[in-house]
């Protein structure tokens, strides 16, 4: 598994049909991601690797457990090298950086303009053809996380339908401005629609949540207060999630939760969350959309600071009646 939640969930969507074919899936990666997948319906088991083990250590683990296959979709050859050392029969990966010599099945990742999930599917499909993606089941976290999420909701008075406000972002340039959130939340409050702040323990998430609560002090706030698995459960139980291009948005899409996600410097055609009820919003028309920069050279960062809150409100109006009936 990669280090980023969004990448991990896109990989999950590409390999999920293997479980339907009776293939046991063991997720192997950083503890935070393994906490998300542990006990869920997405994998058979998990192996955390907090110390980022070397290829020889990984090969030893593969040998001990007699792994029948290795799907190495992060852009690193470490896993493929481990699989080759362990003589794992099936090794799926990318052909770059020597991968074509280490993998039994590989395709190029770079130089393509299609969505990352399609690239993942192409690689997996070489080793496991004819996988059925037509009836993808939603991601469901483990029972304990679902129960804890429901307990938290009861304590916050969110026992009915509610909207999740996803503040998290892996990069500052992908974060909606606080003034936009305040206008959206003012509408939610006027309409009597319950909502809750969701996000991680990053300083930026916590600071934005604090700025929002300075205006609306009674806003339910769970930023930085739950594990990733419990956050996932809260997202899956929401009527709608509104958020940035982030791991929380990918969680909503994978959980089949209605999702409104705002894209600015990143490109929906490459990494947009995929699910049955996803609406992507952008500040049209800006020539600089999808620049892929980590820092914005345009004064005011218009793609994420100047988008009209009315667009988000209109999308919420369209989604909420549907969400209430699902």
Automatic annotation (TrEMBL):
Keyword line: Glycosyltransferase, Transferase
Superkingdom classification of source: Bacteria
CDD domains: GT9_LPS_heptosyltransferase
Chain segments annotated as coiled-coil in the UniProt record: none
Protein's name in the database: Glycosyltransferase family 9 protein
Organism name: Geothrix limicola
């Amino acid at each position: 598994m990669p280090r980023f939640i969004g990448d991990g969930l896109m990989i999950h969507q590409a390999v999920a049909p293997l479980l339907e074919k009776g293939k046991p899936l063991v997720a192997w990666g950083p503890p935070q991601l393994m906490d998300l997948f542990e006990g869920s319906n997405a994998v058979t088991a998990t192996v955390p690797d907090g110390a980022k083990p070397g290829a020889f250590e990984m090969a030893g683990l593969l040998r001990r457990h007699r792994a029948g296959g290795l799907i190495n979709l992060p852009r690193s050859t470490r896993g493929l090298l481990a699989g080759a050392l362990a003589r794992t029969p099936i090794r799926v990966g990318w052909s770059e950086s020597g991968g074509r010599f280490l993998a039994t099945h590989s395709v190029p990742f770079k130089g393509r303009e299609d969505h990352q999930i399609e690239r993942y599917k192409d690689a997996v499909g070489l080793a496991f053809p004819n996988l059925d993606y037509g009836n993808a089941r939603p991601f469901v976290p483990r029972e304990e996380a679902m129960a804890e999420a429901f307990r938290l909701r009861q304590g916050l008075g969110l026992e009915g339908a509610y909207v999740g406000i996803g503040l998290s972002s892996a990069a500052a340039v992908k974060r909606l401005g606080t003034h936009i959130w305040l206008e959206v939340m003012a509408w939610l409050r006027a309409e009597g629609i319950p909502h809750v702040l969701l996000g991680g323990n990053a300083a930026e998430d916590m600071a934005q949540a604090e700025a929002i609560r300075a205006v609306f002090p009674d806003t339910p706030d769970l930023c930085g207060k739950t594990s990733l698995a419990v956050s996932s459960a809260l997202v899956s139980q929401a009527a709608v999630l509104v958020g940035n291009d982030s791991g929380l948005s990918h969680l909503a899409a994978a959980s089949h939760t209605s999702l409104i996600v705002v894209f600015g410097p990143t490109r929906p055609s490459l990494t947009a969350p995929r699910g049955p009820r996803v609406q992507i919003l952008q500040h049209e028309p800006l020539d600089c959309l999808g620049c892929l920069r980590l820092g914005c050279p345009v004064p005011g960062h218009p793609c994420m600071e100047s988008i009209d809150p009315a667009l988000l409100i209109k999308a919420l109006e369209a989604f909420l009646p549907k969400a209430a009936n699902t």
